[in-house]
Amino acid sequence: MEKKLYPEIKIAPPGPKGKLIIAKDKQYASPSYIKLYDLVVDHGNGPWIYDVDGNRFLDMMAGIAVASTGHSHPKVVQAIKEATDKFIHICGTDFYYESFSKLLERMANLVPEMGEQKVFLTNSGTEAVEGAIKLARYHTKRTNIIAFRNGFHGRTTGAIALTSSKSKYRAHFGPLMAGIYHIPFCTPDAVTENEHYSKIIYDLEHDFFKTIVEPQEVAAFILEPIQGEGGYIMPTKFFLKELRRLCDAHGILLIFDEVQSGIGRTGHMFASQYFGVYPDIYTSAKGIASGMPIGAIVAKSSVMTWGRGTHGSTYGGNPIACEAALATIDIVEALLPSIRSHGEETIVKLKKLALKYPVIGEVRGVGFMIGVEFTNPKTKGPAAAFMEELEMMAFAKGLLLLGCGTSTIRLSPPLIVTQHEIDIMLKIMEECIIVLNKKYGF
Ligand code: PLP
Asked: What distance in angstroms lies between residue 311's CA and the mean position of ligand 1's atoms?
């Protein structure tokens, strides 16, 4: 039987080796990098990360929902090694190779409910979003795009025009791309409202389309079917269905940005399958290749109508990333049932913790896309400082967590995580909550 591992902190991070690396980084790095806490990685294995000073951390954020098969999964490593021995680059935009066409085929069949599909491979999520905007405008010959408040779509100039999760992502970068409108997302409050009524949809039809933009001038709606960076916010199925209805009625394209919610994270290959509502175009990136940089724009064949040379990429669909993706998708597909059941068990355990500690205001999510929102039990407002301290305290105890929204911890572990590791996470989170509750008088 394999020995069960636990986090191990031999020296408070950053240790001496870590400090040297951080010092060099600070001297030369762009000040725009965030660097949430002083984790200096040496290597990883499954859900475990080892720092340069010999500490072992349990990774419950998977490099921001990317290391889908865990760190350095042997099958992914093998695929990468074999690919590098063959060739490293030739440019998939201009020439052919087997792994590229195999991945196109694989990606075009992950959401069979969308019918016949075509795929464009990118290097990142933001690039997939840029391409999806271009495709929507090209195909519809319309310019306007409706995005949703609190959404996050990336950091390139087109994507920041769609993003509204934090104003700092947009500040001083304008003028931003024209033709973008933001409307409210299905807020957590709205989720508890009547399933058969959405004020947001009502306002769109009876106000927005009458006073701001005519629907026949709208190329697309773009949204994350579950908001990621904005706070792991779940819409209702009804809300998504109603958007689909509006799109069908007015010839508007529905774009799902599944960069964070895709590739098994919800226990379904894509969140669209969890909701049973299907887009015309979706973007994917995180998780496709366990960390190798690759993304995709996947569209119904009837929509991917742009002509030869209208869009391309030097590196997109690099052969090494394609092989890593093919290996990753096989592993993730086999894991889907266990992601669903482990995810559900985790949510049940977290909800039990919430009953014990009212500072946990809400637990929401599906599969391994789980948000734990911290709320001040006295004011009922967001407990942002509490959440940030919890993140730091957990790090000091060997647990890697990551916040999102205002006061939410996003649990997005590698999809191979076991109940043993989930229980470690719960134990450490509870220890931190007990200490912080005392400090904050909650
Ligand atoms: N879209 C969503 C929903 C994301 O979560 C992200 C990244 O967090 C992006 C787009 C941008 O992806 P990338 O950082 O690979 O450009």
From this structure: 20
